[in-house]
Amino acid sequence: MLAFLFWSAFSVYGQMTLSSGSQIVVNSGSTVVANDIANSGGTIKNNGSVTVKGDITNNTSGLFDATSSGTVTFNGASAQEITGDHDVDFYGTVDINNANGVSLTTTSTGSDQTINGTLNFTSGNLILNGFNLTIGSTDPTNAGSTTGYVVTNSTGVVKRNVGAGAVIYPVGNTSYNPVTLTENSGTVDYYGVRVVDNEPANASTNHMVDRSWVISENVSGGANLTVTPQWNASEELTSFDNTSCQVGRYNSGTYTWGSVGAATGTDPYTQTGTGFSSVGTYAVGDYYYGGLAVDLKIFLAGAYNTTNHNMDKTLNDSSLVPTTDPYGMSTTVASVPSDAVDWVKIVFRDGTTSTTLLDSVAKFVNQSGQIINDDGTNMSVTGLEKASYYVSIHHRNHLPIMSATVVNLSAASPSYDYTSALAQAWVDATVTSNDAMKEVETGIWALWEGDATQNGTISYNGGSNDRISILNAVGASTPGNTVTNTYSLDDVNMDGTVSYNGGSNDRISILNTVGASTPGSTIQKHLPH
Question: Which of 15, 62, 412, 520 is the most buried (most CB within 10 A)?
Fold first, then answer.
């Protein structure tokens, strides 16, 4: 083995060439300056300082000895490359000090690279192109928008070993957009990260940060990630609200979102999402995707119990409430909340022109009248701007109502209680024969029950009346029949049966709704047309 020991404080090479079996030793306190370094079988044991002005070409196993503790500085006057078909395998400190940047080669015959020690940025970027960079357990130093960072401009990723502690990835593309990962389960794995200069392809609004972080892993499965990306104010799309935003994982056209909250910082900003069980493309969106909480309360007269002052959930107790909504909105849940009475549909209408329908969602109403999500929490709605809306509530066999005033979703805690007063419901001036809601107890108001035909009116006699619908359901020739254990429009009192005669039958509910003394009258819905 041929060894060169540099005892002098300073040595200069035009080109340093290492052949098979050769070794260069740079002692502590010594400095070697080389234009290019070409290696085809040797090693450098660097405990001092090696300054590279040109390129490193490595075509054999690791160039640097594993006991190296010195610094390798890239300090050329023009752009530099790390090339060759093998990993240089850096030990000690690698210092990027070239404003023109240092690249992993752009040729297809290049290699992924490893920095086992410390990566430091004095000036300029380290550009990956199509190759990967593995960084050891020591966090890179001095990375930032004004010093330098790892540029993930193509398919190359930064790989780091992530366990229970926070691990930073000093990455970006045209700007510095680092991300910090923590593996909460403590399962150690190598995660790769690259930054893309736009939001995921399916984003259809301006409620996002114009960046995404593509995260991969060596061993598939078992992830429990905390993900904290960083972005700059200039990368926020025009409608993005950083006071109410969250981290989300995009996969196959859908997102899994973390918790909504205010971003940290003043520019740049960060946000943290926890509990992600899979890798993929991560993004930052605001409330538009994460959901706006809305506190809405209604009663359904058919299910209302005057003794308990709430609604019965007989349909749910009998496992009759379906897991897919009955309004044709294709909303499906894994299970129905335990205190749910039934599905309802909520329609958001333009706050100026109430006839303009903007969005609809299917949710549940519980026994106390609260409209809830499938997990039992107060309802939230996605895909809506923070604005004011008229809100109408629909049930499959009750007459719908609309709020008399707008509901401001920009408020800190938007809410509307339809049950507290008749005046809470909008009144159609052309409908003079009935109130917009039914008073089920003194001062307590509910949606009218009995629209078995879903035609917007409740009638006992006349063409297409709701009584006949019930009669046909039980069998017109034998009206004493009862259809049991059913989720039916004709079950207007919501007890799980359809009956025409006998106690608590559905026909009597309709008769009582329209007025027993005047069964020819009709109750009409109050909604703007």
Answer: 62
**Rounded to 10 degrees, what is the CA torsion of 305, 506, 444, 344?**
90
**pLDDT confidence of residue 48:** 96
Q: pTM of the full predicted structure?
A: 0.84
Q: Convert the pLDDT of each residue in 413-425 to its tens digit.
A: 999 999 999 999 9
Both tokens of residue 64?
């640097």
Contacts of 516 (CB under 8 A, 6+ apart): none
Burial 511-523 (b: 16+ CB within 10 A, else e): bbbbeeeebebbb
Question: Which of 146, 107, 104 lies closest to 123, judged by CA?
Answer: 146
Structural domain including 264 reads: 157-289
Task: Please state, in angstroms and rounded to a whole number, the distance separating the CA atoms of residues 76 and 363.
Answer: 63
Give dist(CA 264, CA 502) in Å, integer. Answer: 64
The residue among 315, 335, 515 whose CA lies nearest residue 396 is: 315
With tokens 């629909």, the residue in question is: 394
Residue 143 lies in a domain: no
Tell me the pLDDT band of 5, cut-offs 50, 70 and 90: very low
Amino acid at 215: I
Helices 506-514 & 466-474 angle (0-180, nearest 10) = 170
Neighbouring CB atoms inside 10 A of 384's CB total 17
pLDDT category at 2 given cuts 50, 70, 90 is very low
Residue 201 within a domain: yes
274 and 207 share a domain? yes
* Phi (first) and psi of residue 315, to 5 degrees: -60, -40
Q: Are strands 133-135 and 158-162 parallel, antiparallel or unpaired?
A: parallel
Q: Do residues 438 and 427 both lie within one domain?
A: yes
